[in-house]
Amino acid sequence: MKLSLLAVGQKQPGWMEEGYKEYAKRMPREWPLQLIELKPEKRVGGKTAEQVMAAEKVRILDALPKSARLVAMDERGARWTTMDLAKQMEAWQQDGRDVAFVIGGADGLDPEVKQRADQLLALSPMTLPHGLARVMLAEQLYRAVSILNNHPYHRE
Questions:
Q1: 127 annotated as ligand-binding
Q2: Any binding-site annotation on 124?
Q3: How distant is the alpha carbon of residue 96 from its chain centre?
Q4: What is the DSSP string of 17-29?
Q5: CA 84, CA 47: separation in Å to the nearest integer?
Q6: What is the dihedral of CA 120, 125, 129, 131, to 10 degrees?
Q7: What is the 3-state secondary structure (H, E, C) of 40-73?
Q8: Is 11 left (phi over 0), alpha (psi -120 to 50) or beta?
Q9: Which of 7, 33, 68, 78 meets the CB 3.0–4.6 Å disulfide criterion with 100?
Q10: What pTM, to 2 d.p., does this model score?
């Protein structure tokens, strides 16, 4: 089962890129994690947040791996524990579909992306820099897989 992280935004600070790469490379072969960076829409010419999100929506849906389960990151989404994520990943593995996590741009995700999502998931009720959200999500995916593999990385 492949995991994809579609993220609107490019050129993150070096430490954020390194943090993401560190956890992505730790993922086992049966759970590869791929980052797909999408160009953010520029807010020029008086574009509204809705227009920006609509343009980014097209990029997100075009880049979404075919037949993948869509998990949209949203501050109003479900608040899972790491154990909840591990259990969910185990269930996803049973249905065999790839999973794509989506982090929107500065204005968030277009409502159509959220409606189309199989799940809305929150990393935190706090506002996070998008690059840090990538690192946190990659770390939590690695930790969840470690739990599933009975690895001592996670201790309860």
A1: yes
A2: yes
A3: 18
A4: HHHHHHHHHHS-T
A5: 39
A6: -40
A7: CCCCCCCCCHHHHHHHHHHHHHHHCCCCCEEEEE
A8: left
A9: 68
A10: 0.91
Is 85 annotated in a binding site? The answer is no
Give the Cα separation of 149 and 35 in Å (integer): 23
**Contact status, residue 41 vs residue 95, Cβ threshold 8 Å:** no
For each of the domains in the chain, give its residue range(s) and CATH number, in order of start. Answer: 3-148 (3.40.1280.10)
Q: Is 104 known to sit in a ligand binding site?
A: yes
Closest of 110, 115, 123, 98 to residue 4, by C-alpha:
98
122 DSSP β-pair partners: none
- Output Rg (C-alpha) for the chain, integer angstroms: 15
Residue 125 labelled as part of a binding site? yes
Look up residue 4 and give its two tokens: 């994809």
